Sequence to fold (199 residues):
Amino acid sequence: MSEETNQNSAETPAVEPVAAPAPATTPAPEAAAAPAAAPEAAATPPADAAAVEGAPKKEAKRDIFAEIGGGEEEIKIHKAKKAKNVTRGIVHVTATFNNTLVSVTDPNGNSIGWSSAGKMGFKGSRKSTAYAAQVVSQDACRQAMGHGLKEVDVRVKGPGSGRESAVRAVQGLGLEILSIRDVTPIPHNGCRPKKARRV
Fold:
């Protein structure tokens, strides 16, 4: 009896392991079906996401162009009687330690737009900041764009902090920059320096 019981118990575990792989094979088709369905589900959301992401980008671009276009139209309306039809000009940026001045001229040097940090409402030490230079440059260029300005040569003078931001503001308005020159005057030992400060 004990031998038969041992044989039955020995046979039972042998049958159980054979039965164990059977459940593993049955879920396999289900698992294969699930990954097949997963790519379809995964393919659908990115298309929706692309459509959702694409729409805000288009709207943002329209808003930017609308703002820029609106600014140009207002200036053209104000300058309609005296419009000079100047398509190419020169942007003179003077960036000192205390102020930023921007004037736009035609190729002959006749002014068609100008602005300064004080004119735009900046006072004191804020006049020499990079942000002030950006606002000043935009104001001067919008005035000139009212006369039909499209292409500019940029000439930068002085050691101030608004040098780069003024040039970037010109480019941001949609004007085509043909060249950028640094025309800061450099002495060649021409004048005697003033006496040293005593502090």
